[in-house]
C-alpha cells in the first residue's frame, strides 16, 4: 500500500474557494482533481488568502497563506498555475509570500498547468520594473531549482519545455519532468446532467463563449463567428471588431446552460493548443447538447472523437465547410441531431475508465 502523503495546495493569481457565488473555471479544475487525492487517503491542505468569500469544505484542511511560516512539514506541494499581475502597478504581498515559501521549500513541487500561458513564473522578473521591488531580497524570491514536476494538460511536452527555455520570466524545467495528464476530463468523474434539448428549444444556430487571446484564435474566431449568416450567440470576454460583445461574461457555473441555447459550436484555440491541448470547453459544449465541431488545425490527427462518423462530420477547415456539414446533419431533423448528441456523449464518457483516470494522477504524485 502506498504511503499516505501530507499534501499542500496553492493557486497562483487567485484565491481558492468552494463558494458557488464566485466559482471560476480555475477553481473548478482544482476541485475536480483534488477529490482523487483525498479519496486515496492523502491529507490535502489548502493554502490561500482568507477573505469573506473563502469557503473550504471537508475533507480539505485550509490555512491562511499569509500566516504560514514554512511548507517544511509537507510531503509535497501542488501549485495550480495562474497569472502574475500587479494591479495598478501596486505590490501584492500574496505573491511575495507564496514565492518566499515555495523557494525555501526543499520537498517535491508539482505544477498543475491547465492554461498554456501560465507555467511557473519567475516572479522577480515581473517585479523588476516596479520601484518597490528594491524592498525585497532577490535570493528569497528567485527560483533556481529546475526539478519542478509538471502535471500538464498538453500532449506535446516539448512545446512547454521549449517555451520555458527561451523566456527568462519562466522558471527553468526539464522535459523529463513534464507528465501529461488530461485534467480537462475530470469533469466526467461527476458530470452535470447533459442538456439534450430539442432543436426547436435552441434559439441560436451557433454559439461561442470565451476570449480571443492570441492571433491564431482571433483569426479562427473571425473565420467562424463573424459574418457567417447564422444566428450566433457570443458571450465571455471575446471582443468583436475591438468592441465588447453585447452579452458580456457569463459565470462559469452557467456556461453549459448558456451553450445549450445553441444548436452548434466550433472549438478553436491558441497556437500553443494546436495538436496539444483538449480543453474543458470541448466537454462542456457536448454536455450542453451542441453539435461540437472542431477546427481541424486544433486536432490534425482527429484524436478527440473515437467515432468514424464524427471524425468525418465534425472536423472543419472553414466556415463554409462547417455550414455545409451543419445543413447536412439538420436535413435529418431531430433524429439526426439526437444521433450526433449521443455519439458525442459516448466518446467523452468512454475516453477513460474512472478508476484508470484516477490512477494516472496518483501514479504521478505517489
Can you walk through the features of this model?
The chain has 366 residues and is an alpha/beta fold. It has two domains: 6-182 and 356-365, Glycogen Phosphorylase B (Rossmann fold); 189-349, Glycogen Phosphorylase B (Rossmann fold), CATH 3.40.50. The protein contains twelve helices and 14 strands. The strands form three sheets. Strands 3-2-1-4-5-6-7 form a seven-stranded parallel beta sheet, with helices on both faces. Strands 9-8-12-13-14 form a five-stranded parallel beta sheet, sandwiched between helices. A two-stranded antiparallel sheet has the order 10-11. β4, α2 and β5 (108-113) form a beta-alpha-beta unit. The radius of gyration is 22 Å and the shape is globular. The model has no long low-confidence stretch (mean pLDDT 92).
